[in-house]
Amino acid sequence: MLTININYLLITTSLVFVIGLAGIIFNRKNILITIMSIELLLLAINLNFAAFSIYLDDIIGQIFVIFVLTIAAAESAIGLAIITVFYRLKNSIQLDPIKKKLTNKI
Questions:
Q1: Which residues form the domain of 17?
Q2: How many domains does the chain have?
Q3: How does DSSP classify residue 95?
Q4: Which of 19, 63, 86, 103 has its CA 20 to 30 A from that of 12?
């Protein structure tokens, strides 16, 4: 059996988390890329939980991963439904019209 050092997993999860965070910070125009970046953040956190769960020989982390994946799936389904309705109304999935409406109401 091939054993992987936990440092490699932590470096991988950190890299995936930074990529997701950069996607949220640098992309302010497209809703779909923002949702994908949030999914990358959740994936990195889940991989981190699973790695520490295996490393510490505890099942609680793996159970928590299942709960987070369930929440992430629901978030993706609702987000994609909102994007579909928004695209049908505006023929675009850009964030600029949403930001303008929110700033006008405040």
A1: 6-105
A2: 1
A3: S
A4: 63
Three-state secondary-structure class, residue 94: strand
* Adjacent-strand bridge partners of 94: 30
Q: Which helix (H) or strand (E) holds 72?
A: helix 60-90
The position carrying tokens 């929110």 is 102
Domain at 28, CATH number = 1.10.287.3510
Q: Is residue 39 part of a domain?
A: yes
Note the pLDDT tens digit of each residue in 35-64. 889 999 999 999 999 999 988 988 999 999
Q: Is residue 1 in a domain?
A: no
pTM of the model: 0.78
Distance CA 92, CA 31 (A): 10
